[in-house]
Specification:
The complex is a heterodimer of chains A (96) and B (293). Chain A is of the alpha+beta class. In chain B, helix 6 packs across helix 7. The chains are: A alpha+beta (96), B alpha/beta (293).
């Protein structure tokens, strides 16, 4: 499943995407993100019958991505983002 | 001071219903899905995966009790007692506020599952326009989510925005759709669907001499455009179905359909119960797996 978490700021609409088919729940992104946007849960809340660990955007961060992700946004062209870099399975991508 | 009687134009119709043909006493599992949204709450009671009864009402300011109220409202038309329920799942914005639920599941999973049930298994794209946010979901033939998209919290282009607008213009919210088409010429969309901005823009347009119907049309168009911008990103594969309260607003749906280029699927069910129906179906699936009580 592609889980697209979106936010809107003055420059447009942006998305963080987690490909839950690729995510193995290793949790590397949890430590890599300076804003602690990700958490690993035992069971995908959007796919309750699957029962395998997977990374999701924490419930209390979903509505705040505009603020949490903005420090990493200007870095998009300069270097790769910490969460994308950390994910060895290539499950995390960004639209900016 | 003279007492002013204020008409509540935003008020939409609450409803409850029970299917007299379903013999719940013979059912193996009675499961309940409760969808506590930001604007409305629904409870759906299923007997072995078939809808037996439902209740659909406003959430109001009392989120914990609205789950209880919605369930009582659904049970009102039946002779079933609450104790007969085998498994209860909470979903929606206030899913943590369903004290008697066995577990909670996100509304994304539930809306996809529910749309699969109320519109049929050919549904691949589900658009849920609720009270406070919009979700675009793609699912497979079993109603399992394959791709979803949610925006951050903003009531722009949602049910709450429509309520506020109906109230501002003094048009009952259930008539907004019809009245928005009673215009000589389709106006341009208002420049922002943001409820606060749109409100001030609307008063400006009224002052310029626009009719109420023109302003409604402009707002409905702006909502449809905003909803479409989200849908565009995820892509629309047939069949396309809408859930949530906005699916009942023809003013938005009939403007969205030509943009999407696909007919919206039709259903005999109340589109607002999709999330709760999905939750009840998950409850049934969990019971079959032996995870019931």
């Amino acid at each position: 499943m592609l889980a697209n978490y979106g936010y809107e700021d003055g420059s447009g609409v942006f998305f963080i995407t987690i490909d839950t088919g690729r995510c193995d729940g290793c949790g590397a992104c949890v430590g890599a993100c300076p804003a602690q946007v990700f958490i690993v849960v035992d069971e995908d809340p959007h796919d309750p019958l699957r029962e395998e660990p997977v990374a999701v955007v924490a419930a209390d961060k979903v509505k705040k991505l505009k603020y949490e992700c903005s420090p990493c946004k200007p870095a998009a062209k300069a270097a790769s983002l910490p969460c994308v870099e950390a994910c060895k399975a290539g499950a995390i991508s960004h639209s900016w | 001071m003279a007492e002013e009687k204020k008409q509540e134009f935003w008020r939409w119709t609450e409803s409850n219903w029970a299917n007299p043909d379903v013999d719940w006493k013979r059912a193996r599992f009675i499961t309940v899905g409760i969808d506590v949204g930001s604007v409305s709450s629904q409870a759906v009671i299923m007997a072995d995966g078939e809808i037996y009864a439902y209740g659909n009402m406003r959430t109001g300011s009392d989120s914990p009790n609205s789950a209880r109220n919605a369930l009582s409202f659904a049970l009102e038309k039946t002779d079933m007692k609450e104790g007969r329920i085998d498994y209860c799942i909470g979903t929606g914005y206030g899913r943590v506020n369903v004290p008697f639920a066995n577990r909670s599941i996100t509304e994304i999973a539930c809306h996809a599952r529910g749309a699969n049930f109320i519109y049929g298994p050919e549904v691949r794209t589900v658009l849920d326009v609720g009270g406070q946010d919009i979700k675009a979901i793609q699912c497979d033939e079993k109603g399992k989510v394959t791709n979803f998209l949610m925006n951050d919290k903003c009531a722009a282009g949602t049910g709450r925005g429509m309520e506020v607008f109906a109230d501002l213009l003094g048009v009952p919210v259930t008539e907004v759709g019809d009245r928005s088409f009673q215009v000589d010429k389709e106006p341009d969309a208002v420049s922002s669907t943001c409820v606060v901005y749109a409100k001030s823009e609307a008063t400006g347009l009224l002052r310029k001499g626009w009719s109420i119907n023109d302003v409604l049309a402009a707002y409905c168009r702006a909502m449809a455009e905003r909803i479409y911008s989200l849908l565009e990103r995820i892509g629309v594969t047939p069949a396309f179905a809408m859930t949530g309260g906005m699916a009942k607003n023809k003013g938005v749906v009939n403007r969205l359909v030509p943009m999407v280029g696909l007919e919206a699927a039709k259903t005999m069910w109340d589109t607002q119960i999709a999330g709760a129906a999905g939750a009840a179906l998950f409850g049934h699936a969990l019971c079959l797996r032996g995870k019931g009580k």
